[in-house]
Amino acid sequence: MDDRLYRNVMGSFATGVTVITTKVADVVHGMTANAFMSVSLNPKLIAVSIGANAKMHQHIKDSKKFAINILSSNQLNESKQFSGQLQSETEITFVTYNGLPILEDTLAVVTCELHSEYVVGDHTIFIGQVTGVKIEQKDPLLFSQGKYRELKELQE
């Protein structure tokens, strides 16, 4: 199976866009990710898949806690900055929620303590025990087929 074809097929699944944040030794770290999902309602667990070579991989292992910032449609620049797509970084202001650094103006935030981790192929699936959630009435930032997208209501 061709790697490019596989990536194109997986990329055709539209997802929301998140930035994972954590703090290690008083330094805030962030990484854009769309491999995020809810795992369980009782107990409340989420999963995020992170490549073994990503810096965030070790940061989560070190901090043992992290936040999932679900981006709103007006946060394209934040997504691009934390995925390394911008030529020059702009200064990001973080606020604290449940003891973790989070982005302002997000659609939603989920804070977690590391529950477990599973090495699968070239990634690790980190399972987070949810410690807090918050949500705002905003539209999500979406990603599909290699492009950022916005939500549009369909006529019934």
From TrEMBL:
It comes from the Bacteria. It holds the Pfam family Flavin_Reduct. GO terms for biological process: pyrimidine nucleobase catabolic process. Residues 10-150 form the Flavin reductase like domain. The keyword Oxidoreductase applies. SUPFAM superfamilies: FMN-binding split barrel. Keywords: Oxidoreductase. The keyword Oxidoreductase applies. GO terms for molecular function: FMN binding; riboflavin reductase (NADPH) activity. InterPro entries: Flavin_Rdtase-like_dom (IPR002563), NADH-dep_flavin_reductase (IPR050268), Split_barrel_FMN-bd (IPR012349). This is Flavin reductase.
